[in-house]
Design goal:
mainly alpha; Hypothetical protein af1432; two-stranded antiparallel ribbon
């Protein structure tokens, strides 16, 4: 089965072909994150902003490792190509549907490219490890508290938080407030900078010193 997608840098790629999968560029994926809104584009909050908050929140963990920070930053990178699915729908999707399969194929490639693998296995869901899942969930919790009116929250699956988790949610809400009004090109630059700090040898040369430089790359 072919899984065909379009990318700006390489044209149409078959994600089921390992050689074509290697043609995916980090720049295409990050650009995609900056244009993918969470929650069905109803709240004006992108997957890129979400990822930056998850990465920043990882600093609040007890003795966070560079690997945890890297996984936190990149945990939704596949959505830059495939898009975000609202939680009430995603939890009902079968594990073997094409959309989920495409995510796993991209994440397998990212695991090899950015040294994210769990216990040496590229097929294990590195984005599903407990530390990343917790951070992702707490930021989700903070997003619901920030953006969703109280009377509309019943459809989201949320559990009661511990006191420590509540503090992390409050921290995430402050980070959301700090990032929500930043221009897109600034956020993209922040993401590239964070990736470069965690992976100094990565082939990443997309730093924007001015807004004019970003506009040349079609960022508002």
């Amino acid at each position: 089965m072919k899984i065909l997608v379009y990318t700006a840098s390489s044209g149409v790629l078959d994600l089921a072909d390992p050689q074509q999968l290697k043609l995916l560029t980090i720049h295409d994926l990050i650009k995609g994150l900056s244009r993918r809104d969470r929650y069905g584009a109803q709240i004006g909050w992108t997957v890129l902003q979400h990822s930056l908050v998850v990465a920043e929140l990882s600093e609040q963990l007890e003795r966070p490792t560079a690997l945890t920070k890297r996984r936190a930053l990149l945990h939704d990178l596949s959505e830059g190509l495939l898009g975000d699915m609202q939680q009430p729908i995603r939890v009902q999707m079968p594990f073997d549907c094409v959309w989920e399969t495409a995510h796993r194929l991209i994440n397998r490639e990212l695991a090899e490219r950015y040294d994210l693998a769990v216990m040496g296995s590229l097929d294990f869901g590195w984005d599903e490890v407990p530390s990343v899942k917790l951070l992702d969930y707490l930021v989700f919790h903070a997003e619901v508290e920030t953006f969703v009116p109280h009377g509309h929250r019943a459809g989201f699956q949320r559990r009661e938080l511990t006191k420590g988790e509540q503090k992390l949610v409050q921290c995430a809400m402050r980070l959301i407030k700090a990032l929500r009004d930043r221009p897109v090109w600034w956020l993209v630059d922040d993401f590239h900078g964070a990736l470069e700090s965690l992976l100094p040898d990565t082939e990443d040369d997309y730093d924007y010193d001015t807004e004019e430089e970003a506009e040349e790359d079609n960022y508002p």
